[in-house]
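Example 3.
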Amino acid sequence: MNFRHAKTFLLGAIALGSLASLFADKINPYWLFIFYDIGISIVMAVSLNLINGYTGQFSLGHAGFMAVGAYASAVITNRFGDVNFFAANGIFAVALLAGGLAAALAGLLVGVPTLRLRGDYLAIVTLGFGEIIRVILQNMDQVGGARGLSVMHGWTNLFWTFGLAAVTVYVVASLVNSTYGRGFIAVHDDEVAAEAMGINTTKYKVTAFVIGAFFAGIAGGLYAHAKQFVTPGGFGFMQSITFVVMVILGGMGNTVGVILAAILLTLLPEGLRMLAGINHLGWIGETRMIIYSLLLIILMLTRPQGLFSLKKASVQK
Amino acid sequence: MTEFLQQLINGLAFGSILALIALGYTMVYGILRFINFAHGDIFMLGAFAGFYLAPKIATVFPLPSIAGAIVVLFLSMLICAALGVVIERLAYRPLRKRPKLTVLITAIGVSLFLEYAGQFFFGAAPKKFPDILPVLPITKIGGLSLNSNQLVVLAVTLILLVALRFVVMKTRIGTAMRAVSFNPEAAALMGVNTDVVISFTFALGSALAAAAGILWAVNYPSIDPLMGILPGLKAFVAAVLGGIGNLPGAALGGLIIGVTETLVSGYISSTYRDAIAFAVLILILLVRPSGLLGKKEIEKV
């Protein structure tokens, strides 16, 4: 996606989000929550795309950063009782930002020592950090431990969800298209050559990691204030995998594709659930997730370059 | 001291099961350079194969008995070996020339498929694994209580490791496996049929995972379709810890993870046990980025 489109997208999505939030009480709550899920998935997938797609560093722990953001922001907002509309949105904005910063800090702590590892080693270490974050949260009684934490305020709405999704897309798209951002793509294309050209590859990798973690933290804040209940188990390894699948199906490093994949993969299980409601198709209800995993395998076999990529699949030499 | 030895034995039993799973990860990685995420679910299927076979076998060999247990173990290994070959043929082989990430996601898809299909066909509720081995009364040696099942785990693991060592080092197909893992193109030019070697590797790894599944079920007799996730992850960590692609490394890694986890949950805190494996891994990778026994790969430009 080029820079000009990103700006249009930003303004359009924010306008649409605020317009839609005016009608929020007319939308069926079931659909409203699916819309929140879509927005949150977009934030997660697009930010992960900066790490996995553009910079080529395989991270399997994105849900861990989401957990940090979710808990950090929920702890802040839980300190406040009932407040008026403006105070609520003000506090929410601060809490989301704090959640993002906490996750970015976690990203920095994880990134600096580990990003000198490559490929599969990096993947397994990020997976490990995601799991460690989960286990630590499980053992923190101040935030409810394994029982989970109730979030008092359901402040997430369409405006915040899609506004922040638009901001994420805008930041990632304009970052990658800037002069500075060429460095990410250079690291992705050939780390050794990039280093030889004088690019500080470690710095770029850590930057991508921290920015990605920041947005994952914000998505976590949105998630916590949409569901109003968070458990450490909700941010496990399977969650991270879901976001990685979105990035790969979207075609690594293709922002539009990743957004479409995030929407599709959030709707797919719901769509199958709906099909199961139709007569004769009741069997789909029990086999919904089997169909989902089979579709995933078939998609990878038939379109390995990603669902929405126009480029031909690259063949490994 | 007695308690420490006791924990050590528990840890070794747990670790040797992890080692058996880790060997499958490391063999596949050594040859295809990709993480077979579905391997933990083969371990689960091994346990379920034993669960469904045991009543049938009990009609021929009365269970629990040693002969019956060996038959159950052997048949489960055979079933899973066949399954491993089928999965490789259908899901991984068409993608062999694609980027590794594509294959990785396919492997995740296969893993999800096996878990959900398992929940559908076997039911999501945990099942009690039948007693296939006669449980000897707990022997006490100097205050140390030895469970006969733990001894069985250690003995079977040792036998399988020796057998694997023999296959890989002394047989024709083992030599071919080493050749393919060293350089697939050169091996193919020398007349090694890489497809056969890869299928054989999957069969071998899956059979070991099935054996681990049976041993696990004998020791901790509650099995469910999601039981493979955590042992699978920990075994993978063990394989990376020992230096992925390195067979003795995988066995060593499994034992280290098993013993550390048991000791930490015994002496420090049991609630942190699932994080131990990863913490050990991260600490070791920071010092030795290619694992304990792994060789440093030099990247050619």
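The interface with chain B takes residues 58, 113-114, 116-117, 119-121, 123-125, 127-129, 131-132, 135-136, 138-139, 192-193, 237, 241, 244-245, 248, 252, 286-287, 289-290, 292-294, 296-297, 300-301, 304, 313-316 of chain A (CB under 8 Å). Chain A has twelve helices and two strands.
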